[in-house]
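task queued by scheduler; priority normal; single chain, no ligands, no partner chains; default sampling; output format set to structure tokens
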Amino acid sequence: MKMAVIPARGGSKRIPLKNIKLFGGKPMISWSIEAAQKSGVFDRIIVSTDDAEIAAVALEYGAEVPFMRPAELSDDHTVTSPVIAHAIEWHLANGFEPEQICCIYATAPFLQSIDIMRGMKILEQLEADFAFSITSFAFPIQRAIKLRTDGRIEMFDRSQFQMRSQDLPEAYHDAGQFYWGTKDAWLSGVPIFGPNSVPVHLPRYRVQDIDTKEDWKHAELMMEVLKKH
């Protein structure tokens, strides 16, 4: 059984009701639900939430909400893995046998169904614990600078100052869209960014973390451009 779990708690501080705020004419979470549906690979698409309003929107767009997430997994400090493990354990206790589980973030409006399908195939073919979306940094991280307390700057690594940008190895970061994993990997607490995890490359123009109002505005501008092209 393949299952999608979309974590979407209420109580967002920086962007109130972020998961169901209208984006591109429909609730933000609906983009993730529809990408999962279009992939055609899931036996169940569920939303894990503690919020009745989010649950209602999820149901409206065709996802399932078989349980309400407990309070101890719904505060500001809860990370993703325990939420997915809870969803798996609930299903095991209720007669289901999920073997491959894909966590899809509720704020991933640029996620495409083909990305989900690629992640599933990579997970299976390479027999990995996890397969998750990544994208490249736009600037060499080796030449990053930091601000000092006296208002001046310094490099994180001064030895890289004389290196040409094109001679530095490319660096990548988590794209924050989806994480395929096996049941055993999710339940055992194996780190997602571990040695038996594999990447699913996404282009930078389809990746935008949405945590602040500035992020939201940037995502709206990205959506306008993508619609035109």
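post-processing summary
- The chain has six helices and ten strands.
- The CA atoms of residues 136 and 172 lie 4 Å apart.
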